[in-house]
Write a structure and sequence with these properties.
Elements (H helix, E strand, L loop, with lengths): L2 E5 L3 H12 L5 E5 L3 H14 L4 E2 L10 E4 L16 H14 L6 E4 L4 H11 L7 E3 L2 H14 L8 E3 L5 E3 L10 H12 L3 H7 L4 H15 L4 E8 L10 E9 L2 E4 L7 H18 L3
Helix pairs in contact: 1-8, 3-4, 5-6
Length: about 280
């Protein structure tokens, strides 16, 4: 029996709860949201669709196998970068860290700046680093693959670095030479992929929910699939002091960093820029 808790029951949290239940990835749902009307509405909406227990009791969090943290202020067209949400969402992360006392499952971090809060929970909960996963790498990689396709380039699309302005699309694993000018154009396209969705319907929903559920499936099935997600680097690739998107294999024990990748100079420089930027932010927590 798999119990899924969603802290933040709005757009992404609610969709993850419903999709996981509909796909058979969760046998019980726990929802929490500070806004009571949304919490009640999401609980009713799920139970009107599916025969599954839905609880709003935060004391049950210790029984959960997975917890998705998506509470807090969301990005809007007026918010330039995800990092600009740091001050607004840090108090929410602190409250959630307290709620997670006794929780021993896997924590998937969605709230922005996602990489910083992945680091925060690694330092302020009793969870091991392998149990804390920052969502974003799969979604960024999907957006990268679409940008590559538009440029007439095929291959295995992976994005490392920050889930934000300092993301690092990996071109060297495509098997072809992509000029730097084309790389920068594709990077600009990938970085801006979310904004048309945010402007059109006030937030991304389907993409995040689908990829979060795929991560839950990887863990429950012990797939050991190679993905990219945010984890504390802990010295991997000579990076320390922050969490950021890295290649990992995902299974029942959580995320194991694959430290075997090699990067070209363009990628190496971008990855250092990302780690330096995120290290500065992570010092604040």
């Amino acid at each position: 029996m798999t119990v899924l808790a969603c802290l933040g029951a709005g757009r992404i949290g609610g969709e993850v709860a419903f999709l996981a239940a509909a796909l058979g990835l969760a046998d019980e749902i726990i929802l929490h949201d500070m806004y009571e009307p949304v919490l009640t509405a999401q609980k009713l909406d799920i139970t009107h669709a599916l025969d599954i227990p839905v609880s709003c009791d935060t004391k049950r969090l210790r029984d959960a196998d997975f917890c998705v943290f998506s509470a807090g202020a969301a990005r809007t067209p007026d918010i330039k970068t995800r990092a600009d949400l740091f001050d607004a969402n840090l108090p929410v992360a602190r409250e959630v860290a307290e709620l997670l006392t006794g929780f021993g499952g896997h924590l998937i971090v969605v709230t922005n700046p996602m990489d910083v809060f992945t680091w925060y929970f690694a330092k302020h909960t009793g969870l091991s680093q392998e149990q804390i996963l920052g969502f974003g790498g799969l979604l960024d990689s999907r957006r990268f693959s679409l940008a590559l396709a538009s440029a007439g380039v095929a291959g295995d699309a992976r994005v490392l670095g920050e889930h934000g302005e300092h993301q690092v699309p990996i071109f060297s694993r495509l098997g072809i030479d992509v000029p730097e000018m084309v790389r920068e154009e594709i990077l600009t396209t990938t970085r801006g992929s979310s904004m048309p969705v945010i402007k059109g319907k006030a937030g991304t929903i389907f993409g995040p929910a689908y990829h979060i559920c795929s991560m839950i499936n990887d863990i429950t099935t012990d797939s050991h699939r190679l993905i990219t997600c945010s984890v504390p680097a802990d010295g991997a690739y000579d990076i320390d002091g922050c969490a950021l998107g890295l290649p990992v294999t995902l299974g029942r024990d959580g995320a194991a960093i694959d430290d075997s990748w090699c990067f070209d100079d363009w990628e190496e420089n971008k990855l250092r820029e990302a780690s330096d930027y995120l290290t500065g932010l992570c010092r604040r927590v």
